[in-house]
Task: inverse folding
């Protein structure tokens, strides 16, 4: 997997946008960028993924830098239920470690009322 | 309901007593995986399976075994548990990894909290 770097923690106020950054400077051309989140006392859940273009779904948006060395998960209006650990993953697209996934420590997002 | 189930959800055991944590999915997924989660270390992959009878090591396989005899089940076996295997364990499954490097969404189970005394 491409190594990813995320801030340990971030804070936001309710109903404000949140931009969660992830650096993945060793990403290769065919690697997808995935985001998961883990709510307290639950297993991780999928949020979004993308390759080159910005992506939107009902949960969030994913903005990918033009050189693909970084990406940003955007929560447009944070709610208290968005308080979670957010993980950025860039798994190998192929090779001997295809199937191996590295989650890392993620970013702890705190949302204040 | 589509889901990944794990049993038991909580287990306290003693050093050296063999145990198995079961994982089952009802979504006909090819890919399954086990993770452990420890404070300060995040989520680390133990073993994964691309399909029946195909398993491979993740980042922290030492002290664990797995088997994949049928598609729906992927048990995690601790032959001789030790206190350093006290952790929160998650099982996950997904449809097959797609061509071109695209990974499908993984579905996680609720977790098994294991304490080894």
Result:
């Amino acid at each position: 997997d491409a190594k990813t770097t995320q801030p340990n923690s971030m804070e936001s106020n309710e109903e404000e946008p949140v931009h969660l950054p992830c650096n993945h400077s060793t990403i290769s051309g065919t690697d997808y960028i995935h985001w998961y989140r883990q709510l307290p006392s639950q297993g991780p859940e999928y949020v979004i993924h993308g390759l080159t273009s910005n992506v939107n779904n009902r949960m969030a948006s994913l903005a990918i830098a033009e050189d693909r060395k970084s990406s940003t998960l955007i929560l447009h209006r944070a709610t208290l239920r968005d308080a979670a650990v957010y993980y950025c993953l860039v798994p190998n697209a192929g090779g001997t470690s295809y199937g191996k996934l590295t989650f890392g420590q993620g970013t702890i997002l705190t949302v204040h009322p | 309901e589509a889901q990944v189930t794990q049993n038991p959800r909580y287990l306290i055991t003693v050093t050296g007593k063999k145990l198995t944590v079961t994982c089952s999915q009802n979504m006909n997924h090819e890919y399954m995986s086990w993770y452990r989660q420890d404070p300060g270390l995040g989520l680390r992959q133990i073993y994964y399976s691309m399909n029946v009878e195909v398993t491979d090591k993740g980042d922290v396989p030492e002290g664990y075994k797995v088997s994949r005899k049928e598609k729906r089940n992927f048990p995690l076996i601790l032959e001789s548990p030790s206190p350093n295997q006290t952790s929160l364990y998650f099982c996950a499954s997904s449809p097959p990894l797609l061509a071109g490097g695209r990974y499908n969404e993984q579905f996680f189970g609720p977790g098994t909290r294991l304490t080894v005394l």
About this structure: Strands of chain A lie at 9-13, 18-23, 33-38, 45-50, 55-56, 61-64, 70-75, 84-89, 107-112.
